[in-house]
Amino acid sequence: MESGSVRKVRCRERCWRGACGFVSTLAAVCCLGASTRAAELHLVERERFDLAYPAFVEPVAVATGPLGQLYVADSGRGTVLRLGPEARIEYEFESPDTQPGIDPLDLEVTGFQVFVLDALSKTLLRFTLEGSVLDVLQNFAENSNGFPAALSVDGSGRVLVAYPNRHAVHIVDETQEAETIIGGFGTSAGELSRPIGVAFAPDGSLYVADAGNHRVQHFDEVGNYASTLAAAVEAPRGVTTGADGLVFVADAAGAVHAFTTRLEDGHQHVVLDLPANEPVDLAVHGDTLWVLSRAPHRLLRVQVLWGE
After folding, report:
1. Mean pLDDT lowest for which of 36-45, 156-165, 169-178?
2. Coil, strand, or helix at residue 173?
3. Any alpha helices (H) in the chain, and if so which ranges?
């Protein structure tokens, strides 16, 4: 089986103590001192599953449920699919009564609900984990900003949406009424150019794939600029966050980036090269990272490991 390779990169930030340098062919680690070194982060590709036509037409997004359930949004087929072992389709989501299908652009699973950006109805739909329609959470039909391209939902019910054409990201509060606007076109810190992926972190802060500027930016929970996580990602697309301060970025140029954000982990940046793939989205559950490739249509299962 053809598999990806992990390349070493230099630390993206200064070390807190000691010097930076290449320390492994598998991971880049900041030295924390003469006698202390953070455990190294590794990404190991385990399996590949081709999403073949006609079962899959145009898969665009992937998400995982609270028990590791796997969901794929397929805009070409006009539905969301729940996948089982070996990436086999178990069932597809129902459509709202008022329309023949949906055109999902992105999806997010938070708690026991599935949130879907539907370009057909220009709404944010809410489903059960079993695919039954619950309600319309937001209607973008008369939104002067157009229709968002990506979303994230946190545990409190806040919604984060990206507007690439407006070069902005909006945080919608728990009431679905008040909005905070982040960005505006530019290259300076806190400015954006075609943001195309967003993710809430467990602490309420957020990450934005700033595609036009080839970087990933970090903002605090109220939208203030915090830092630039990576300033050299060729084609950032989907972003997701995991436990222990991990941030993962799909790079459509053929790679997946993983970052540690905790001081004790040494600010590592690991790159898993995936030649002949175009990663556009990803989802993590425990130590399993699912990567969705657009060309070819494929799911890759990657294991997230810590070790020396």
Report:
1. 36-45
2. coil
3. none
